[in-house]
Amino acid sequence: MSGQILFYVVFLSQVLLISFFLPRQVLERVRYVVSTYPPSSYPRLYPVSLERVERAQRNYRNMNLFMLVLGLALVARGFYAPSEEMLNWDTTSVVFFYYLLQWSPLLIALTAGFTYFNLKRKPDARTKRRAELRPRRLFDYVSPALVGVAAIVYVAFIVFIAYVRTFEFPWFGGYLNVLGITVLNLVFAGTIAYYMYGKRKDPYKSYEDRAREIELNAKLLIFISIAATVYVALSICLSAFDMRHLGPIAQSLYFQVISVAAFRGFRIDKVNFEVYREELAAT
Amino acid sequence: MEIVIDIDDSVPAFARTWIGNDITELVEQIKRAVLNGGLCPGDALPSIRQLANDLGLGGEIVAKAYRLLEHDSVIETKDYRGTFVHPDAMAKIAQG
């Protein structure tokens, strides 16, 4: 019973963190940008009307509010009608699917962001194209130590899986775990390469801002790679030591850690908004 | 070191590529960067994909420009390590 209370306390913190505190930060950033860099002075920043931006903000806030209410309802049901598994299903699956739902408002907002970038490109009448005659390399953005830690964690994970295989647990997926982490790492590597060498999403963004964007995303993806590998190893340990009931707690904590990491690090005050001024954009 | 390509031209984009305006401009800009010291012998150059995406040009244009520069010994490609300014680049441009 105390384990269940602990789970619901941790789950409640997931609900509040991802559907209340982090969205509030996002909305505060958008409000700061709109009030400090208005469309009248920074027209290149707004490929769509301010009304559309405000409507998107309202939708984002309402979707998060819905997720918040849904999460609180799950917690309330857990306290008032306790059952062995959440919703009489599988607690780990419920936490996972709820986490995906919690991220859906931001994913919708990011998709809209890509549309905005495409709209930004269209009216770009500048005839001069600029590029730096310097190759971008991974270690310009991420320390070799962090990449080294990720590599060590990955190799240690393979050794760990090989070791656990010797016990022949019936539930154990064996090298499928390695395959899953390898695919995840390959997707992350491809995403980092896209940020480094792909087409500019925002035609007006300065070199410095682009470098900061690459650095932030590369560090985040490497951190998530390490966290995911450690989390999978931890889940296997909990199952091996017959402590599966702690699995949903570890899962919820893992989701919270990577969510905070995803939001942390972005500094709006360091962005160079001057490139979005009309007179500069016209040159 | 920054490179600037001016696409303000009355010739349409497809014809510019065919005539070679963009290629010539890119070659000249890199040679100029070597002459004015913006690029030194041994300095690494961006990959074809990076430069093409940054300038919004086709990869074949940058590849052709790099081939011409390599032919003139202004740059050299070292297998898998990338493209670098040739040690004799300055002399070759002065000759040329």
Which key terms come to mind for this protein?
heterodimer; A: 283 residues; mainly alpha; 8 helices; B: 96 residues; alpha+beta; Arc Repressor Mutant, subunit A; 3-stranded antiparallel beta sheet
Give the SSE layout:
The complex is a heterodimer of chains A (283) and B (96).
Chain A: H1 2-36, H2 50-80, H3 91-121, E1 128-132, H4 144-165, H5 176-197, H6 207-240, H7 247-263, H8 278-281
Helix pairs in contact in A: 1-2, 1-3, 1-7, 2-3, 3-7, 4-5, 4-6, 5-6, 6-7
Chain B: E1 2-6, H1 13-19, H2 21-35, E2 44-45, H3 48-55, H4 59-71, E3 75-78, E4 82-85, H5 89-95
Helix pairs in contact in B: 2-4, 3-4
The CATH homologous superfamily of chain B: Winged helix-like DNA-binding domain superfamily/Winged helix DNA-binding domain
Q: Do you know the CATH topology of chain B? A: Arc Repressor Mutant, subunit A
Q: Uncertain regions of chain B: pLDDT < 50 for 5+ in a row?
A: none
How many separate structural domains of chain B?
1
Segments of chain A where pLDDT lies below 50 for 5+ residues?
none
First-residue to last-residue Cα separation of chain B: 23 Å
Determine the fraction of residues in helical runs of chain B and give it as a percent range: 40-55%
Q: Can you tell me the overall shape of chain B? A: globular
User: Architecture of chain B, CATH level 2?
Assistant: Orthogonal Bundle
What does this structure look like?
The complex is a heterodimer of chains A (283) and B (96). Chain A is mainly α and 283 residues long. Chain A folds into two domains: 1-124, no CATH class; 135-269, no CATH class. Helices cover 69% and strands 2% of the residues of chain A. Chain B is of the alpha+beta class and 96 residues long. Chain B has a single domain (13-95), classed as Orthogonal Bundle (Arc Repressor Mutant, subunit A), CATH 1.10.10. Chain B has five helices and four strands; from the N terminus they run E-H-H-E-H-H-E-E-H. In chain B, a hairpin with a 3-residue loop joins strand 3 (75-78) and strand 4. Chain B is globular. The model of chain B has no long low-confidence stretch (mean pLDDT 85). Chains A and B meet through strand 1 of A and strand 1, strand 2 and helix 3 of B. Strand 1 (128-132) of chain A pairs antiparallel with strand 1 of chain B.
